[in-house]
Amino acid sequence: MANITAADVNKLRKATGAGMMDCKKALVEAEGDFDKAIENLRKKGQKVAANRADRESTEGAVIAVVNSDNTSGTVISLNCETDFVAKNDTFVKLATDLANLSLNHNSKEDFLAANFNGVTVSEKLIEQTGVIGEKIEIGSFERLEGSFINSYIHAGNKIATLVSLSANVEGAGEAARNVAMQAAAMAPLALNEDGVDAATIEKEIEIAKDQLREEGKPEAMLDNIAKGKLGRFFKDNTLVNQAYIKDNKVSVSGYVKTIDSGLTITGFKRVALG
User: Fold this and answer.
1) How many CB atoms lie within 10 A of CB 139?
2) 274 pLDDT exceeds 90?
3) Cα end-to-end distance, the chain, whole Å
4) What totals of helices (H) and strands (E) does the chain contain, helices first?
5) Largest CA-CA distance found in the chain, in angstroms, rounded
């Protein structure tokens, strides 16, 4: 029988995040072979993952990151089953490490196949499922590119956003962060009117018409009045048209123009748990 030292156990614990007893058991089963012990822990994760495949993973941590020159960013959610796990510092660190890795990838599929400390991201998630005992998965993966990007993560890591501006001007960093906070708080459906799909627009027009009929408005007037109500819908639900939360006398696009008259918002991404 191999001599398993405390140093061996600690080394495996640092490499995998598994508990001390699980690490010692894995090393004993592997007769001291470090790589085989990691594989044993991963197999344990596969069994746990299979048993919990039907579970809902609606808790977790949402992390937004931006590259060094503020021209691209990603938002990912690392999902788990309980809020208790989601608040764990080790879990949040894993989510942050994965988010930083995601900056180098353009799709969720590429990201899941990426190398993470010698294993793929997918394999790491399976390993951590065994360690934590809950279903662990990447829920959302969003990427944004632009002339200047900044991010915002709401307290508790439940919501994170990215916003892109048309230019890297003086004050762009603060402006983009403020607009990212707006997107987090107000959950716009789209950047502007063009980003709202036709089915949503048609549905809103029909809702407005039904309300007008109940008010006794003549049928011939319904289209024009409904289009007016649609304008209100766009104001409430598109980022550039929303009232700016720090000064509701101006729109979000109006706020950005106070930073620079030619500055515009070119895109955003928002990820929220639940």
Assistant:
1) 16
2) no
3) 49
4) 11, 10
5) 90
In this structure, are residues 114 and 169 in contact, taking their beta carbons and an 8 Å threshold? no
Give backbone dihedrals phi and psi of 199, rounded to 5 degrees, phi first: -65, -40
Question: Considering only 11-15, 84-88, 126-130, 263-267, which range has the smallest mean pLDDT?
Answer: 11-15
Distance, CA of 49 to CA of 127 (rounded, Å): 9
Residue position matching structure tokens 């660190």: 93
- Do 144 and 232 touch, CB atoms closer than 8 A? no
- Strand-pairing partners, residue 120, are 115
CA distances from 237 to 158, 186, 191, 230, 242 (A): 21, 8, 9, 10, 7
**Over the stretch 7-40, which tens digit does the pLDDT of each residue have?**
888 887 777 777 778 878 888 888 888 888 888 7
pLDDT of residue 155 exceeding 70, the answer is yes
- Hey, what amino acid is at 206? E
Residue type, 207: I
Residues 82, 59 contacting (CB under 8 angstroms): yes
Give the helix/strand (H/E) hosting 69.
Answer: none
Tokens of 135: 């279903």
Q: Is the pLDDT of residue 81 over 60?
A: yes
Contact between 37 and 30 (Cβ < 8 Å): yes
Task: Give buried/exposed letters for 17-28 (b at 16+ CB in 10 A, else e).
Answer: bbeeebbbbbbe
Strands of 94-183 (E only): list them.
Answer: 115-116, 119-120, 137-145, 148-153, 159-165
Residue 149 in this model has a pLDDT that exceeds 80? yes
Q: What are phi and psi of 272, to 5 degrees?
A: -135, 145
Looking at residue 105, its amino acid is H
